[in-house]
């Protein structure tokens, strides 16, 4: 069985505003992790800890369709360099945006389940912080 995390949130912000929070370095720091550069299609990225500035996660933006879809190849330290896939989908809805996340390619089996649970909890918290954007 392959582990995949799926999350969605309804936000009062426009798709353009949500997109900016997914791709602009100064806005990523407000809800996720700081980046030293904007996330751009075809470019590698690194995100850093708010607390100590250590590298938290990194990868490559493999596809970016402004205001509707963003795809990352993504890893964190405990994955020991194994890449996973994070797909963001933005749908305009009356009054705002529905933002969906699918994090796939996660470790299988009981030995990887603790990491999957930690990532699930992390995404839950990070996406919840997006409720504060406008």
Automatic annotation (TrEMBL):
Q: Which InterPro entries match?
A: ASHA1/2-like_C, START-like_dom_sf
Query: Start and end of every Activator of Hsp90 ATPase homologue 1/2-like C-terminal domain?
Result: 13-131
UniProt similarity note: Belongs to the AHA1 family.
Record-given protein name? Uncharacterized protein YndB with AHSA1/START domain
Q: Which organism is it from?
A: Primorskyibacter sedentarius
């Amino acid at each position: 069985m392959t582990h995949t995390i799926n999350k969605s949130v309804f936000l009062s912000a426009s798709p353009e505003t949500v997109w900016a929070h997914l791709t602009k370095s100064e806005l990523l720091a407000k809800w996720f992790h700081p980046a030293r550069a904007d996330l751009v299609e075809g470019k590698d990225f690194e995100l850093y800890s708010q607390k100590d500035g250590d590298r938290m996660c990194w990868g490559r933006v493999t596809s970016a369709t402004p205001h509707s879809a963003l795809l990352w190849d993504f890893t964190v330290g405990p994955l020991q360099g194994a890449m996973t896939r994070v797909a963001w989908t933005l749908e305009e809805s009356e009054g705002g945006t529905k933002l969906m996340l699918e994090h796939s390619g996660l470790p299988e089996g009981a030995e990887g389940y603790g990491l999957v649970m930690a990532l699930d909890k992390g995404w839950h918290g990070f996406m919840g912080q997006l409720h504060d954007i406008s």
